[in-house]
Amino acid sequence: MARAGADHAQHRAHPRRRRWLAVPALAALTVALGGCASDAPQDSLNPQGPQARTIDDLIMPIFAVAGVVLLIVVVAIGYCVFRFRDRPDRDEMPEQTHGKPALEIGLTIAPAVLLAVIGVFTVKTIFDLDEQPNDALQIDVVGQQWWWEFTYPALATETGGPIVTSGEMVIPAGEPIALRLTSRDVIHSFWIPPLNGKRDTVPGRVHTLTMEADEPGEYWGQCAEFCGLSHANMRMRVVALSAEDWDRWVANQQRLAAEPTDEQALAGMEQFTGLCASCHQVNGLVDAEGEPVIADAATQVVAGVAPDLTHLMSRTTFAGGTFDLKVPECTNDPEYTAEYVTGTADNCLNEAELEEWLRNPPAKKPMFSDPENLESTDGLYRGMPNLGLSEDQIDQLVAYLRTLK
Amino acid sequence: MADVTLPAAGVAAAAPAEHEPGPAHVEHGPVDSHGTTGLSNNKLAMWLFLGSDCLLFGGLISTYMLYRGRTQNGPKPDQLYEIPFTSVSSFVLLMSSLTMVLAVSAARRHDHQRTRLWLVTTALLGATFIGGQVFEFTSFYREGLGFTTSLFGSSFYTLTGFHGAHVTLGIIMLLSLAAMTLRGRIPGDRAEVVELVGLYWHFVDIVWIVIFTLVYLIPA
Amino acid sequence: MAIVEQPTPSPSLPVPAGEAAPLAVTPTTTLGVFKRPVEATGWRSWVFTVDHKKLGIMYSVTAFVFFLVGGIEALFIRLQLAQPDGTLLSADMYNQLFTMHATTMIFLFVMPITTGLANYFVPLQIGARDVAFPRLNAFGYWCFLAGGLFLYISAFTGGMADGGWFMYSPNSGPMFSPGHGVDFWVLALQMTGIASLTSSINLIVTVLNMRAPGMSLMKMPVFTWMSLVTQFLLVFAIPVITVALFLLSFQRLFGATFFDPNFGADPLLWQHLFWIFGHPEVYILILPSFGLVSEILPVFSRKPLFGYPFVVFSGAAIGFVGWGVWAHHMFASGLGPASVAAFSLTTMFIAVPTGVKIVNWIMTMWGGKLWFTTAMLFAMGLVVQFTIGGLSGVTHAVAPADTQQTDTYYIVAHFHYVLFGGAVFGLFGAFYYWWPKVFGKQLNEPLGKWNFWLMVIGMNLTFGPMHILGLQGQPRRMYLYDENMVGSGFFTLSFWNFMATLGALILAVGVLCFVVNVVRTSWFSKVRAPLDPWDARSYEWMTSSPPKEHNFDSIPAVHSLDEFFHRKYQEDEHGQLTKMATAEEILDDLETHADEHIHMPDMSYWPLVVAAGLPLIALGLIYSYVISGVGAVLVLLGAYGWAQEPASADPEDLEPPSGPSQELATVG
What's the gap between Cα B218 and its chain centre? Predict the structure, then answer.
């Protein structure tokens, strides 16, 4: 036990142990270089579009510089530990030097110069990334608790209104997309790591962001600004399609939902009209008088909207991009992008998941939708409440939802 | 040694001169018998507090400046403000700074009577200002500007309310001081207490000049 | 007569004869009920104390308890995330825990414990017998305790705050955060804010006005310097968060509209106010540890701090530039490219003074004679880990990259390297270094080594992998992550999450070693520490351990930086540095020349009374104004009593009656 300062010879017994200081640091570095997961869908180090690549090109050399600086510091300390440790043969006091101003000024200027160089490239990149392409396809991105809505103002449907979808933002590959982002309740953040950095969506403000995917494919992301209870369940994907598929997707989205033919689905449509249509829009749905049913979610939910379900089956996820709408056999199919165009094939629907959701949504995804707990919002829900559906109702609804391709 | 200006000075006198000087290569500076600031502890603390308070009002004023145009459906600033009225009450508050100066100078001369007179006058002027503010708040409220009406309402009442609270606290301190002189409790060597309250009072006045200019005089 | 510590106003005019006498009003004559407490032992000696050393210990012990609470919250968070789709915690509970973890660690652990250390050691390092305003000091402690307890009351009244420690609007508004959790959070932070403001003003005045003769600013120990910078940051940062908290509480309690977008409010107002406070806050947390490591490294390298003026000025520079970088927390908020570019550059600039410190620390060790005590190991751990945190900080300053990194685990890794690897390691180093000074006993060194190595391994295993997790797409503040997110291969994100949890458990064992060490040393060890166990260099070692109530029998004059070292070591005729005097001899010399009259401030009830009123006022704002009324009465009563009470009482006003206490008050 170390006790007295006057006699610390006993400490000299194990000086060698200190050399190990450097080892964990080096090991950590090795692991950091080789320790990444492959194919993590939200990997920011795997850019798939020009914007993300610009960021990656900027930061990679800086990571390297930082690694070198760390190495220098660790080596210097390791050298001190090894060379200047208190040894039995060192009795004299070390020289009581108070500093060497020239050395210190030099060691102040060197990092300042290094940082100035980094600063120049950083500022250039900031302004480059801020440029908005003129002729880009525009998509309005709106966040609300706890899902994303995407509106294509330039692409009208048969109703005359724009294409509206949720959870998955479908874009043509190889073309720049101009996003306008805002929120209907709290602050969210739109983040598709393979395509670009994140940008907050703030109520009352409109922010812009440009995105482009090099190749057709699915790019994952999720809300990155803490937005309340189910923040972890607010996800989204960008689906980039080839030019040909994109055109077919747009054509499909522009169609209205057709009236189902089979009996079970028809029954489901009636259930839907009575139970769901006050919040969820389905273009093409008509009431008994033949008038279009228009959702008016503002009377029931804080955000004032619920996901548009006209083409639910042309998506792969539901409930804020959280749950799989399709079974894995279909999502693993290399030809899966066709699903976006034609809607989910009958054998692909993940019925079990959808039924579980309908049985009790807040149990599957935490939401503020307990009717007894809505004092602060004057009775408005934040998220989908439990509708208390019977199994028959659920079966009928699923049969109807299947037809929304 | 009762009249040492700073504790450190007392220490200096107390420290025995027999202490060994440092080793030969050490620089021998003169033994420093004063604090760095030359201010008493209380005054330094008051300055620091006022510095801190600057930031408080800075935050409130920024909030007001950001929100003053956001009146929603409620009344707008130019519909409410009665510049002549507020100018008069501002003038009253400014005059109170003058009487405060007189109070401090009287206290320095150990003129208890005058000190008391000017302290009470200052407090009365301050109270007049507060009275004006209460009147103003009531009339604004009658004209439809509640605390919850709009961003303008919330930030206006918060900013001027915080200032009013500062003035009220100042009045309480002034009256307490006056009461203490009445009971003979501010002898000469504690005249600094009057000076400290004076510092606070002047600060509150200066803040009002800023508020009056930014809130009332510069149109939204 | 030397009136050393009497926070009565100093006269600027000579006192006319005959007027000096009736200045003190005694409690007996004012309220007639209370006599002043005077116990030197027992609980009353702590509860009514105004002694900066006792308050320093109280701050530190309370803060350490909150550290354990915050640590347990962190363990729950890590256990929930040990594997995908964790089921230990509900979303609601998880959100409460990460909010409380951050709030606790920042406001109830690091801030108060650095205040505690500054309280204890700043007067000792500058040769003062107490702080400038001893009762204000006690008041500050009680406000902090009241705030901390008030915050945790909410756990039993329907849920703690769950909006994150940054409490962004509008999510923190009444509509999106119903329940009283956020109300408790806001009001608790106001109370700890009062504590911080009072103690910072107090310490600044103490440092600027009460230094020992000869101690110019550039002869001040570095810890005192860094504490001074920290207190200046606090004085100007606290009012900004106070405004933000007022606005939020007015919205929640009185229906104001400040952050309601339906009224056209700009949610970015909160972010600006919060981060104008929040970024200086980061330096408030780390600068004291920079001071600590600058004390420890020279002692155990047996060399002066390399480039003392550079270390001091870089600390001050950090304090200044720290005000111009707040918006780097908002690079993704949509500020516009010009602001982003400007804040990006200022943020890079602040890396320069930080780098200067690291260079100086390494150069201090260079050519020294290193003695690897536990304190030294912690200090060296700080240097390495803070370097890692600083370098990842530079990668955030690169704003475009930050839009990928912010709100991911990469940020979590960054600030834990800075705050845990940096600030907390500095604190642990100080615990080991100063323990013998405070308690007269040394902590067990072998157990200390276990403590250190387990914490180093645990800390790096916990937070190292988070760099990878964040860059590979795991956002913060998620109560679960999905199996689909983790990627493939051996090093999946779930592997690293598991490692981080494992690291957290190792870290917990490391902290437990410290607790065991403390218990063992305090209750099972009878060995007294030598007066100068580390062959230390600075002023606070020139008194007994633990120090007497009045700190120094006589105040040693200062001739050089590292005064104590220079009194011990002098050059012999060959220019060889040799030990000329032992600590005991130096102390004997000071004791033989003891000051004859030492006036110490007396104990007081009033700080506690005033502070006890505050949580009642706050509670009343939430539940019923009646409770507020009771609290307000208590505050007014306490303030009145306080104002009437002199700092030092007449002997007949003490209960039990006695003369001014000059007895050694042992605190170990």
Answer: 24
> Please, are residues C159 and C179 in contact by the beta-carbon 8 Å criterion?
yes
Q: Which residues contact C559 (CB under 8 A, 6 or more apart)?
A: B21, B22, B26, B27, B28, B29, C214, C566
8 Å CB contact of C576 and A92: yes
Inspect the interface and report whether the beta carbons of A205 and C479 lie closer than 8 Å: no
Question: Which candidate in B145, B154, B155, B158 is best for mutational testing of the C interface (most C CBs within 10 A)?
Answer: B154
Q: Hey, is C363 helix, strand or coil? A: helix
Per-position DSSP letters for A327-352, written without gaps between them: -HHHHTSTTTTHHHHH---GGGB-HH
**Token pair recorded at residue C549:** 């109530």
Supply the DSSP symbol for C661. Answer: P
Cβ contact A382:A301 at 8 Å: yes
DSSP 3-state assignment of A163? strand
Contact A182, A201 (CB under 8 A): yes
Mean pLDDT of chain C: 89
Helix and strand totals (H; E) in chain A: 10, 12
At C146 the pLDDT is: 97
Strands A207-211 and A188-190, sheet pairing:
unpaired
Answer whether C645's CB lies under 8 Å from C606's CB.
Answer: yes
pLDDT > 90? residue A44: yes
Distances in whole angstroms, Cα of residue A392 to Cα of each of A389, A398, C330, C384: 8, 10, 50, 64
Winning range, highest mean pLDDT, from A101-105, A172-176, C46-50, C549-553? A172-176
C217-260 pLDDT, tens per residue? 999 999 999 999 999 999 999 999 999 999 999 999 999 999 99
Which residue in C has a C-alpha nearest to residue B74's C-alpha?
A: C263
- Cα–Cα dist C538/C563, whole Å: 6
Of A41, A93, A375, the CB nearest to C485: A41
Residue B73 contacts C where some CB pair is shorter than 8 Å: no
ipTM of the complex: 0.91
CA distance A226 to A186: 9
Q: Is the peptide bond before A194 cis (omega within 30 degrees of 0)?
A: no
Residues of chain B in contact with residue C559, where contact means CB-CB under 8 angstroms, are 21-22, 26-29
What is the model's pLDDT at position C654? 53
Total-model pTM: 0.91
Average pLDDT over residues A237-257: 93
- Check residue C649 and give its pLDDT: 62
3-state secondary structure of A380: coil
Which residues pair with residue A149 across a beta bridge? A142, A166
A24-33 confidence digits (pLDDT tens): 556 665 666 6
- Binding-face residues of A in 324-363 toward C, CB within 8 A: none
Which 470-499 residues of chain C touch chain A by CB within 8 A? 471-481, 484-489, 491-493, 495-496
Q: How many CB pairs under 8 A join B and C?
A: 243
- List the 212-271 stretch of C: residues with Cβ below 8 A of B: 212-217, 219, 235-240, 242-244, 246-247, 250-251, 254-258, 263-266, 269
Q: Where are the beta strands (DSSP E) in A41-146?
A: 137-144
pLDDT in tens, C264-291: 999 999 999 999 999 999 999 999 999 9
Q: What is the pLDDT of residues C145-204, one digit of tens each?
A: 999 999 999 999 989 999 999 999 999 999 999 989 999 999 999 999 999 999 999 999
Q: Which SS3 state, helix, strand or coil, does residue C655 take?
A: strand
